[in-house]
Amino acid sequence: MAVFELILCIIAAVVLSSFLSRFIPKVSTPLVQIALGALVTQLPFFPDVTLDPELFMVLFIAPLLYLEAHEIDKRELLRSVKLSLSLAIGLAIATMVAVGFILHSIWPSITLAAALALGASLGPTDAVAVSSLGKEAALTQRQTGVLKGESLFNDASGIVGFQFAIAAAVSGVFEIGQSATQFVVSFFGGAIFGLAVGMIADILFESLRSIGWETTTSRILMELFLPFLLYLGAEAAHVSGILAVVAAGLTIRFDHTGIGPNVARTNIVSSSVWGVLSFTLNGTVFILLGMLLPDAMSASWDDPEISNWRLLLAILAVSAVVIVMRFLWISLMLRLARDTTTHKRRKMTPQRWRSAAVMTFGGPKGTITLSLMFTIPYTVSSGEWFPMRDELIFIAGGVIVVTLLLANFLLPLLAPNHDKDASMEMSEITIEVLRRTVEELSGRVTSDNRKAVLMIIDSYTKRITRLKQRIGETDPQGYMQLQIDALNWEKEYVKARLADAKAHPSENKAANDLEAEACERLLDQIMNSLRHIETAHDSGRTIWQLKGRFRALQRRTGMLVRRVNSKIRRTTPLFSDDELFAHTRAVQVDAIEHVIDRLYEEMGKDTYNTEHCSGLLLDYRRGEATLRARPNVGDNAEAQAQAEEVKRESYGIELGVIQDMYEAGDITRAQSKQLRRNVYVMSVDADAQI
């Protein structure tokens, strides 16, 4: 029962962290989760937490690294593989040696082998933190590729080096030749094992698909099972399980093969499952880190025989060694690297020094470091207690916190997002979002919905074309404001028409009710979008939204009451769904004409940019022409309803793509917010109507 309660507490903390991060955007999600982990351990009902390092590696690190390797940009990884491997192997070994000798010299009570073990554990960077910490900083594609590539490969070198150093500390004997041989066997053996299993898995999965045995359930279960099988199999073969998982993730490509709606739906479900699992595991890793750090560090801090000042000095000294070594190594690699065009070495300019600093602070330490430190045995081969075990864990925990804090607060200063609202950048990002949405929609085409989906894809294609034409737009905020004002003009027109229908009811009650319900339906659609994008009500936004939803509920309740009343009093309804659909479209055409007239008036004034008015006029004209060109606009409500359903689904896909890009660090929080507003605008934009 205690384990179940622990799992519930951790999941609750992960969910809470996702909400808190929205209110403190300057603090990275990993830091929020570490703080939450430290706080929940203070709750009276919280069970004790112990970490089994081997279980931690297979349960959390293996699937996360597999997913990271599978989704990484392979071309960018190949371009930066030399620098990534240099950091993952060369820097890891150099850090191990430097930390070991310096720590031993300033604190002789810590044996050289134990200090080397600490240095080896500080070699791996945290793959999760690398992805999370750069969201508020403008890291280049190359910087991101180098950091992600390093985080994939350096776990193996750090773990192997740590194991050899601990063996020397326990036995008192260190064989350099034997250790080097074991390192090479473990490193390259793990890579070969992963490549072999990856190719076998590709053949197996593609064969099952070709003979029609693949189902969504079997595919997801096999995918989830694969990284655990890889890690355990490699460890049983005495090679690096981490590197085997990474190699297989880079090799496997079965989910990019095959065509047809069934394959597309399976890939969509797979992406969703991995997305939820990745977020949960990522959060759990840092929550656990926050839970373990206080207890891990309190044993040394509360020890009266150990000076707290000496502990803090050791943390600062080791942190300085790790950071300085990393900066010097990266600077040297950048200086030695040859230009891809001229094939000549380039001098270090201020921009390249800044790039070296960004990649220095972009490699924080994390959970792998702490999990390795927990594997330090309590005794040595002679039966005595392992010297300074608690102090080594304390220093490792302090370095983790220092590097995470530096990454969180220095990266945005070194690489600020000055151009995050630039029109060209936003237009290019929007085009990428629309392209990904079209790709996902294309995978959902079936014989039943083919016509409806192709209509939506056509509207997205037109949006992409217009955005490409508008790449040079210098005032995207002004154009966005004009779109919002145009929606408000539509709203006021429909409200006035609804008020007139209620104030001057005609003798034909059916016609009057049809007019009222069509206006209310269109008004709900417009108001729903305005509640998501309106900025003029920031001071009382929540109250304004609640009032709007209450008014919408009143309108829908009124419509329902009228329809129920008409069914009770008559054997047939006052009007059919086809008639309601056709009249709603007619009201919408009239509202479009009203906005077009208003835009013509505004073009002669100085309120809006003339080019913005002209561009929006073209959009509304296209929308009006599209609506008028369909002769069966009211003849088949079922077919049109299907198109409307696909349209709503496409907006959900678009919002999902935006969230995925934000979580992957491809766009910033401000950009994701603006993109979401664009979706809500387009949901009632005339050109996007079906």
From TrEMBL:
Cell membrane as UniProt keyword: yes
Question: Record's InterPro entries?
Answer: Cation/H_exchanger_CPA1, Cation/H_exchanger_CPA1_bac, Cation/H_exchanger_TM
Output a single Gene Ontology CC term carried by this record: plasma membrane
Q: Where is the Cation/H+ exchanger transmembrane domain?
A: 14-412
Q: How does it sit in the membrane?
A: Multi-pass membrane protein
Protein family membership:
Belongs to the monovalent cation:proton antiporter 1 (CPA1) transporter (TC 2.A.36) family.
Q: Which NCBIfam families match?
A: a_cpa1
* Name under which the protein is recorded: Sodium:proton antiporter
Organism, per UniProt?
Bifidobacterium moukalabense DSM 27321
